[in-house]
Specification:
Layout: H1 10-26, E1 31-36, E2 41-46, H2 53-73, E3 81-85, E4 90-96, E5 100-106, H3 112-139, H4 153-161
Antiparallel strand pairs: 1-2, 1-5, 3-4, 4-5
Helix pairs in contact: 1-3
Length: 162
């Protein structure tokens, strides 16, 4: 089942961008992404010019979903941290607040220990921003609404028969 959409305000979006920008610098990482579990990129910082960020976000969400399946097979709720080591680059993936995915791509200029330490702090900060967002949405009486909520099966049928 997909997680409900996140209602994000500009203020919180800017806070999240600041957190991941600081994480990129503090962890000496090449790239830091924040993705939702549906594969939608929320924010990115770093050397993203030559990256297919859409595919990276989508594949990361798929990786987390597959790993969640593996965890359940052995009786775990989830694996909250994933690590992929390559010849040049490494990817550290962690789950934040059970609904977002924090991705850090780093090379030999950093270390797994440093990344894990910095991610722990950044994840707590992102979680705090999510709590603020939920409180603000509740105060304003807003429930996250999917942009597809008003589309009916008849609308879809009509689209393909015209």
């Amino acid at each position: 089942m997909a997680a409900p959409d996140i209602v994000m305000y500009e203020e919180e979006f800017n806070q999240i961008k600041q957190v991941i920008s600081k994480l990129r610098i503090d962890a000496n990482a090449k790239v830091v992404f924040l993705v939702d579990k549906n594969g939608q990129q929320i924010a990115a910082q770093g050397e993203i010019e030559n990256l297919d960020t859409t595919s990276l976000a989508s594949l990361t969400a798929g990786n987390v979903a597959a790993t969640d399946g593996l965890a359940r097979l052995i009786g775990e709720k989830e694996f909250s941290i994933l690590f992929h080591e390559g010849e040049r680059d490494n990817i550290h993936i962690s789950i934040v607040a059970q609904r977002l995915i924090l991705v850090v791509i780093f090379d030999e200029r950093s270390s797994l220990g440093l990344v894990r330490l910095r991610v722990r702090k950044a994840a707590a900060e992102v979680e705090e921003v999510l709590t603020q967002m939920a409180s603000k949405a509740a105060e304003q009486g807003e429930a996250p609404v999917s942009p597809f909520a008003e589309i009916t099966d008849e609308d879809i049928d009509a689209l393909f028969t015209e």
